[in-house]
C-alpha cells in the first residue's frame, strides 16, 4: 500500500457511517436484524439474527434506501465484503430515483469507484483479474434476472449479502438458486452471510414470500 492509499484508507476508517447516512426508525430496525446497528456509529459488527430477513411495506416506505444503508455500513466496516443488489430487470435499477443514481450520491463519499460497464462499485485497489469478486477490496454489484436462466450468470459468485429489491417480482426458482450464492466470499470478515428480501404485496412471488415468512392475509386472520 503506497502513501496515498494509506492516507485514503485511514481517512475512510476515521469516518463513521452515521456521518454519511442516517436511518429512519424502520430502517434502524433493519440494521439491528443485520447486526449493523452499532456499526452505524463506528462500533462492532455483529452476526445477523438470521440468514433470511424480510423487509416489507407499502411503496415509498424506504425499503430500497434501507438496503443501500445496510450496504454502505457493511462496505465501510467489513473488510473484503461482497454485496449483490438485485432487481428483476436492469431498467428497474436505473432512473432518477433508482438505486444506481442513489449510490452515485452516497458511495463516492466513502471511497467507492464505479465501473459502469460491470455495474460494480469497488472500495480499494483493484487486484489481478477482471472479475469483480476477486481480490481483497470490498465490492458492491448491481444485478438482475429478467429471465429464468439469468441466474446462471452468478453461478461462480459468492455474495456475503444479497439484497432483493422487490423480491416478489422474482420466481421461487430464481430465488432458490440465488440463495445458494449467498455464502462467505474469500476475504470477507462478515460474521454471517445473509439476504434481505424487500417487497410490496403482490407479484409473481407473492405466495412463496408469504410461505417463507409465515405471513397471513387479513382475511385469513379474521376467519
Shape: globular
Secondary-structure-based class equals alpha/beta
Query: In this structure, how is the largest beta sheet organized?
Result: 7 strands, mixed
Mean pLDDT, rounded to whole units? Answer: 88
Number of contiguous helices: 7
- Rg, alpha carbons: 17 Å
Strand order of the largest sheet: 1-7-6-2-5-4-3
Low-confidence parts: 218-223
Following the backbone from N to C, one meets helices and strands in this order, namely HHEHEHEEEEHEHH
Kindly report how far apart the N and C termini lie. 64 Å
Strand content: 15-25%
The helical percent reads 25-40%
The count of strands amounts to 7
Explain what the structure shows.
The chain has 223 residues and is an alpha/beta fold. The chain is 29% helix and 16% strand. It has 7 helices and 7 strands, in the order ααβαβαββββαβαα. The chain has helices spanning 3-14, 25-34, 63-77, 99-106, 172-179, 206-213, 218-221; strands spanning 52-56, 82-87, 113-115, 120-123, 138-144, 161-165, 194-199. A 7-stranded mixed β-sheet has the order 1-7-6-2-5-4-3, with helices on one face. A hairpin with a 4-residue loop joins strand 3 (113-115) and strand 4. Helix 2 crosses helix 3 and helix 3 (63-77) crosses helix 4 (99-106). The radius of gyration is 17 Å and the shape is globular. The model is unreliable at 218-223 (pLDDT under 50).
